[in-house]
Amino acid sequence: MAYDPDNIFAKILRGEIPCKKVYEDDHVLAFDDVNPQAPVHVLVIPKGAYVSMADFTEHATDAEIAGLIRAVGRVAEELGLVEGGWRLLANHGRDAHQEVMHLHLHI
Ligand code: DGP
Questions:
Q1: CA angle 59–44–21, rounded 5-degree value
Q2: Which of 11, 39, 80, 96 could share a disulfide with 91, CB 3.0–4.6 Å?
Q3: How far apart are CA 94 and CA 76, in angstroms?
Q4: Ligand 1 test: best mutation among 9, 14, 34, most atoms within 8 Å of CB?
């Protein structure tokens, strides 16, 4: 599937739609999910244009991949989740009900 630059998370990255930011660096943006399924529900997204984990793992640079994974650990730490525990989830494609076609990891 081709990347659609008008997906909601692309608009958030461009600042065209607001978000409640919890973390940002050169590679990622993390923000509160608009429809939280847990007391803490944050989405971590790469800044690059990747539809899914398959797209990301095939085409992203090593620096982008390391940046995303490191950011996940950092966000969990900064949100105080490490001691109590937390879950990391990515919905991939139609059968997993991926709604937004820009890779996002749910914390
Ligand atoms: P998924 O099914 O994995 O594609 O989940 C998409 C998530 O994105 C869902 O939990 C709701 C969230 N979401 C959708 N639109 C927006 C938005 O405009 N802002 C924010 N913060 N989250 C959104």
A1: 135
A2: 96
A3: 28
A4: 34
CA of 57 relative to ligand 1 center, distance in Å: 21
Whose tokens are 């997204």? That residue is 45
Query: Do residues 64 and 46 touch, judged by C-beta distance below 8 A?
Result: yes
Q: What H or E segment, with its residue span, contains residue 11?
A: helix 8-13
pTM: 0.97
Q: Ligand 1: does its nearest atom lie under 6 Å from the Cβ of 7?
A: no
Residue 28 identity: V
pLDDT per position as a tens digit, 92-102: 999 999 999 99
Q: In angstroms, what CA-CA distances link 35 with 40, 41, 91?
A: 11, 8, 15
| Calpha distance 88→14 (Å, rounded) | 25
pLDDT for residue 53 is more than 90: yes
The owner of tokens 């994974």 is 69
